[in-house]
Amino acid sequence: MKSKRLEAALGHRFDRPELLSQALTHRSFGSPNNERLEFLGDSILNCVIASALFNNFAALKEGELSRLRASLVRQESLAEIARDLNLGDFLSLGEGELKSGGAARPSILADAMEAIFGAIHIDAGFDACRSVIEKLYGPALARIDPSDTSKDPKTALQEILQGRHLPLPRYELLATHGEAHAQEFEVECIIPDLRIRSTGRGGSRRIAEQQAAQRAMADIKQ
C-alpha cells in the first residue's frame, strides 16, 4: 500500500492508520482534516528540537539556542523534510488545491509534516514521536556549527537600528510572481530615518525579507 512507503520512510508503523490518513488530509479535501493534529505536532516539534539543542550544544546561550530552534522549525525547513519524503504524493487535497499545485506548496507541506508528528504522538506516545523527529532532523542537527552564532539578517538589522535608537524597519510586499506552486515574492525593506529602501526576492516572503534586510545593512555600512 502507498501509505506503507511513507511509514517506512518515517520509521514508524501506525497502529491506527486512520491517524496518518487524517494527518495527510488538507482542509480543502474535507473533514476530518489535519488542522488539529498540526497544532499538536507544532508544540511537540518545538519541544523536541529545543531539548536536542539544549543537550547537544551546552556552550550556547539562550538567544543563540532560540535562533537555532527557529531556523529548524520554520516553514522552509519543514517543507524541505517533507520534500525528501515525497510527502506531496500522499496528500489528500481538494480539487482547487490540486489544480493550483498545492501538493508542492511549502505551507501545505510544512503543515502536513507537523500534523504527522501530532498523529504519531497520539498513535504511540511522545517517545515514539521524538524518535521520528530526531531521525528526520538528524542531518540538519549534524550540520550545525556551534562556533557560528551569526544572526539572520532581519535580526541583525533590527539590533543595529535599536543600537542607534531608530525605529524598526518596515517590510512591504511589492509583488508576487509565478504560479501558485512556484511563487516568487518581491519585498521592500524601508528605513525612513536613514532614507533606505532595499528590495529582496525569494521563494517565500520570509526569504525575500531576509535578502532585503541584508541589502539594507550593506547600505548602512557604505
Number of helices: 10
| Average pLDDT reading | 90
Low-confidence stretches: none
CATH architecture of the largest domain: Orthogonal Bundle
Under the CATH scheme, which class of the largest domain?
Answer: Mainly Alpha
Task: Give the tally of structural domains.
Answer: 2
Largest sheet: 3 strands, antiparallel
Strand content: 5-15%
Structural class call reads mainly alpha
Write out the strand line-up for the largest beta sheet, numbering strands in chain order.
1-2-3
CATH fold topology of the largest domain:
Ribonuclease iii, N-terminal Endonuclease Domain, Chain A
Helix amount: 55-70%
Walk me through this protein's architecture:
With 222 residues, the protein is mainly α. The chain has 2 domains: 2-142, Ribonuclease III domain (Ribonuclease iii, N-terminal Endonuclease Domain, Chain A, Orthogonal Bundle), CATH 1.10.1520; 153-221, Double Stranded RNA Binding Domain. Helix content is 58%, strand content 10%. It is built from 10 helices and 3 strands. The chain has helices at 2-10, 17-23, 35-56, 62-73, 75-84, 95-99, 106-124, 126-142, 153-163, 205-221; strands at residues 170-177, 184-191, 196-202. It has a 3-stranded antiparallel sheet with strand order 1-2-3. Helix 2 packs antiparallel against helix 7 (106-124), helix 3 (35-56) crosses helix 7 and helix 3 (35-56) crosses helix 8. It is globular and about 60 Å long. The relative contact order is 0.13.
